[in-house]
Amino acid sequence: MPNTTPIRTTDALSHRLSVLTSGPQRDALTTGLRGIEKESLRVTQDGRLAMTPHPRALGSALTHPSLTTDYSEALIELITPAEKDVSVTLEKLDELHRFVYAELGDEILWNNSMPGVLPADDEIPIADYGTSNIGKLKYVYRVGLALRYGRTMQCIAGIHYNYSLNEEVWRLLRADQQSTANAVDFQSERYLALIRNFRRTNWLLMYLFGASPALDRRFLRERAHTLDTFDADTLYRPYATSLRMSDLGYSNTTAQAALHADYDTLPGYLDALAKAVSQPYPPYEAIGTQRDGEWVQINTNVLQIENEFYSTIRPKRVTYPGERPLHALAARGVQYVEVRCMDIDPFEPVGISLETARFLDAYLLVCALDDSAALPPDAYAEANRNFGRVTMEGRKPALELTRDGKTVRMLDWANELFGKIDAAAAALDAIRGGDAHARAVAAQRAKLADVSLTPSARVLQTMRDQKQSFLQFGLAQGIAHAAAFRARPLPAAEAQAFATLAAKSLEEQTKLEREEVGSFDAFVAAYRAYTLNRFSV
Q1: In this structure, are residues 351 and 176 in contact, taking their beta carbons and an 8 Å threshold?
Q2: pTM to 2 decimals?
Q3: Other CB atoms within 10 A of residue 471 CB
């Protein structure tokens, strides 16, 4: 275990920053990897969900490394490579958008987290991955999601930010702390410490970057709600930051509400998720796994697979072909974290700005290096309540949160956090040269003093100024972004490289389907046994 000698939080952060910035390996702090996954619904010119198949020119959603679909056939996902400088990551994301737009015809990408106009729930097309067993498994999993949560919620989109530190960083800290844990276990412990700090403070990201304060009235399907009326077609909350991340969006279901992910130790986390993917849940048992001879769920457990667990952040490890995420973590430890709570920024063509990414790098570095207390059930619940409060009323004047059972003004807590984030930004700038991180942090700090600068406030103000409904706002942004991308087509060589990659992915899917052996029933049985064989519960 690492050295747990009590020291003040700010001292611990300062000390670790000093260790990492003063030695010959100081560049390690700026050579971790950053990747972005951006979801966007394909829509028609009037903001309605596109009912067309995933464009064949974009390749196979099953095998393409950068262009796939998420839940729906219309929910495209653009995935960048992992890069050492997030500015390069964003350049890659821009290139992906330009290639996609060259193949979209009259459709546009909906650049908001909350969807535009959806068809009836059962008419939302589920993503199709072909006839291979793994392709059919991905489809059945989504049919199961539809039965458990409805298809409408699955059309909410976001930005996933993948973050890792160079392994040399963990080696230096392990040596400094004179930890007796092996390198893999120490690295996993520190990533879990990052996650615990993140879970306690991720409400700050909702205030700074939440961009979904309103939605189209039809999204709720006549469900009861507590939203206010913005106009005839739009519902909102006056002080909301992210309805996407509130109880209206990615709320925990009954089955997941009782699932407490243990972020204190990796074995504890693995055990909690392994139980969830192998423990039957009566309402899902009532649905069953097959109807009229067709598979409708992978299983009837709390979670069909570990990725069904909705969380604002996940510990991750790159998997081998056919390997389950839990087994990869158990075998080789945590490699990076996936931040999942970022709304799409409708004012940014690719959905996230470089300034936002630089801030995230400084904030996540604080989460990684600061001391991190355990997150027992009461603290876990407190963190969830704070997060939920900020999603629904984060811009409310004098908003109060709870920290360690005591009331604290959100802005006071935010200013404390900014003191630490400033230090992390300064350290990163000192190594890189320039002041990019400091400027990014200063831009976010300005939002504490002037709430009108937050994306959620800007969305509502734009809608008021332009007399737009949410649908009209989303369309105006999407059409403007589409025009900008189409005005910058890729150079011929780059476009050809993307086309070649798409064609190769189609060939890979065809080969997989042609060489498939064994029945789907047997494949599902083996897939389910894979989890149970490795994680006894």
Answers
A1: no
A2: 0.95
A3: 22
Answer whether 530's CB lies under 8 Å from 324's CB.
Answer: yes
Residue in 274, 208, 272, 217 with CA at minimum distance from that of residue 245 = 208
**pLDDT at residue 534 in the model:** 43
Residue indicated by tokens 């994306």: 455
| Rg from Cα positions in the chain | 23
> CB neighbours (10 Å) of residue 286?
8
Q: What range defines the domain where residue 386 resides?
A: 9-534
Question: Residue 9: its pLDDT value, please?
Answer: 41
Q: Are 502 and 59 in contact (CB under 8 A)?
A: yes
Q: Residue 3 domain-assigned? A: no
Beta bridge partners of 39: 77
Condensed to tens digits (0 to 9), the pLDDT of residues 389-408 reads 999 999 999 999 999 999 99
CA distance 443 to 447: 7
Does some domain include residue 4? no
CB 237 within 8 A of CB 228: yes
Structure tokens at 166: 């160079």
Helical packing angle, 9-22 and 410-432, nearest 10°: 10
CA atoms within 13 A on the CB side of 415: 6
Task: Say how far apart CA 96 and CA 38 lie, in whole Å.
Answer: 10
Residue 164 has pLDDT above 70, yes or no: yes
Q: Which of 314, 322, 319, 339 is nearest to 331 (CA)?
A: 319
Write the DSSP symbol of residue 319.
P
> What is the rounded distance in angstroms from the CA atom of residue 124 to the CA atom of residue 475?
20
The C-alpha atoms of residue 248 and residue 114 are separated, in whole angstroms, by 11
Pairing, β 290-291 against β 294-295 = antiparallel
Q: Check: CB of residue 77 under 8 Å from CB of residue 70.
A: yes
How many domains are there within the chain? 1
H runs (alpha helix) in 104-182? 133-149, 167-176
Task: Give the model's confidence band at 339: pLDDT under 50 very low, under 70 low, under 90 confident, else very high.
Answer: very high
Instruction: Kindly list the strands in the beta sheet with 214-216, ordered across the sheet, starting from the edge strand earlier in the chain.
Output: 214-216, 234-236, 228-231
Which CATH number does the domain housing residue 448 bear?
3.30.590.20
Backbone angles phi, psi at 452, to 5 degrees: -65, -15
The token duo for 132 is 């291979």
- The residue among 378, 80, 334 whose CA lies nearest residue 195 is 334
Burial class (CB in 10 A: 0-12, 13-18, 19+), 175: exposed
- Does 1 fall in a domain? no
Is 2 contained in some domain?
A: no
